[in-house]
C-alpha cells in the first residue's frame, strides 16, 4: 500500500494550491479518504474527508475555502485550497480507511497514511 502526497509549496496569503494523493495497493474506490495536517508544535488535525460514495466533510477552519475530490479511475484524491492563510501552514497528510459509518464517518480510524507534503503560507 502506498499513498503519495504532492503539490505542497510556499505561497503568499490569499493564494491557492492543489494537493494530490496518489494511491496504490488497495481498492481505492472502496476506501474513504482524508486529509490531515500538522503544524509545528501542534497535534495532527483533521482537514477534510471524502467517503467511498462521494460524501464530504470539512473542518470548520477550512469550510468554504478547501474542496476535497477524487477521481477513482486515477486512484487519486485532491485537495483544492483557496484563500490560503498563514494558519494553514502545516505538513499535509493523506490517509485511507476501510471502515464506513453514518454520522461522524470521517472520524473513524484510518488504515493507511502517506508521507506528507509541506504547505507554507507567508503573510
Sheet with the most strands? 7 strands, mixed
Share in β-strands: over 45%
Can you tell me the residue ranges where pLDDT is under 50 for at least 5 consecutive residues? none
State the helix count. Answer: 0
**What is the general shape?**
globular
Radius of gyration: 13 Å
The separation of the N and C termini measures 37 Å
Q: Please tally the β strands and state the result.
A: 11
Could you estimate the helical fraction of the residues in percent?
under 10%
- Oligomeric assembly: single chain
Order of helical and strand elements? EEEEEEEEEEE
Mean pLDDT value: 96
Structure classification: mainly beta
Provide a descriptive summary of the structure in words.
By secondary structure, this protein is mainly beta. 0% of the residues lie in helices and 50% in strands. The protein has strands at 2-6, 9-12, 17-24, 32-38, 45-50, 56-58, 66-71, 76-81, 90-97, 112-113, 117-122. The model has no long low-confidence stretch (mean pLDDT 96).
Task: Produce a short descriptive summary.
By secondary structure, this protein is mainly β. Helix content is 0%, strand content 50%.
